[in-house]
Structure formats: C-alpha cells, structure tokens
C-alpha cells in the first residue's frame, strides 16, 4: 500500500510493477539482470478521490499518457528493490505535486515610501546627467 497522505492510500493491486533490463553501461550484469522497474498506474480506474483524479488527468506531464496512465521507469539503482522504492516514491511525488493548490495572487500597490524613494533616485540620476553637460563660463 502506497501512502500519499494520512487519508489517501493506493492499494498495491492498482499499481502494476514489472522488472525490465536497464539501459546504458554496466558491464555483463546489465545484460543478465532485470534490475530496472517499469511502473504503470491507471488514474481513472484507481481508488483516488475525485479531486486527485481530476487534477492528475488535467495536468500536462509527459509521464501521464493520453489514456490517463502514469508510466514511470526507474533504473537509477543497481538493485530491483531500490528501483522499485524509487518508482513508488516518484509516483507519490507526482500525485502530491499535481494536487498542490496554488495560492491566488492579489495585486498590491506600491507604498508611498517606495514611490518617494524611486522618484528621489530618478531626480538624483537626472542631476548627475545634467552635470555632464557643457560648462558655460
């Protein structure tokens, strides 16, 4: 069981994990051992709450296919157990990131002091530039 929050859990039967051979360098061992893990998670068929499903399906991410299936390939570690834990952790992070609610931005006006400082700086800069002109004797 993958625990997302205190109230949201994903049962193991909803997450499909399969072992595959890892890509890249690694000598003879990479050709013999299926240490990489391929994780598939169907969002629509899961027991996640409706809010989570809605946010995940509307979210634009390359790990989520057009059918609403999350596909994660973990091959960073040498052992299958570590890659399995990494894939589950990445799924959890993806779900939490997708359901994070952005704080609404409220437009603010500059303070009177900041306006005054800006205008003082502008007039000071103008005085410096005016001092560069021709000197009339």
Automatic annotation (TrEMBL):
- List where in the cell it is found: Cytoplasm
Record-level GO cellular component terms: cytoplasm
Please identify the protein, giving its name as recorded.
Peptidyl-tRNA hydrolase ArfB
GO term, biological process aspect, one:
rescue of stalled ribosome
Subunit organization: Associated with 70S ribosomes and polysomes.
Q: Which SUPFAM superfamilies match?
A: Release factor (SSF75620)
Q: Which family does it belong to?
A: Belongs to the prokaryotic/mitochondrial release factor family.
* Main localization (coarse): cytoplasm
Instruction: List, for all copies, the residue spans of the domain called Prokaryotic-type class I peptide chain release factors.
Output: 21-37
Catalyzed reactions per annotation? an N-acyl-L-alpha-aminoacyl-tRNA + H2O = an N-acyl-L-amino acid + a tRNA + H(+)
Q: Any stretches that span the bilayer, and where are they?
A: none
Give the first-level EC class, as a single word. hydrolase
Keyword list (alphabetical) reads: Cytoplasm, Hydrolase, Translation regulation
- Could you cite one Gene Ontology molecular function of this protein? peptidyl-tRNA hydrolase activity
Pfam families named in the record: RF-1 (PF00472)
List all Basic residues biased stretches: 105-119
Q: Which InterPro entries match?
A: Pep_chain_release_fac_I (IPR000352), Pep_chain_release_fac_I_sf (IPR045853)
Give the span(s) annotated as Disordered.
105-137
E.C. numbers: 3.1.1.29
**Record bears the keyword Iron:** no
């Amino acid at each position: 069981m993958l625990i997302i929050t205190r109230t949201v859990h994903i049962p193991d039967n909803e997450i499909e994990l399969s072992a595959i051979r890892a890509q890249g360098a690694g000598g003879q061992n990479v050709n013999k051992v299926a240490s990489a893990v391929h994780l598939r998670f169907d969002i629509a068929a899961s027991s996640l709450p409706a809010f989570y499903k809605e946010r995940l399906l509307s979210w634009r991410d390359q790990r989520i296919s057009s059918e609403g299936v999350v596909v994660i390939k973990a091959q960073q570690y040498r052992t299958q157990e570590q890659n399995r834990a990494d894939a589950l952790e990445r799924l959890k992070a993806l779900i939490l990131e997708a359901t994070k609610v952005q704080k609404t931005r409220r437009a603010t006006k500059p303070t009177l002091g900041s306006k005054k400082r800006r205008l003082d700086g502008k007039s000071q800069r103008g005085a410096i530039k005016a001092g560069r002109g021709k000197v009339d004797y």
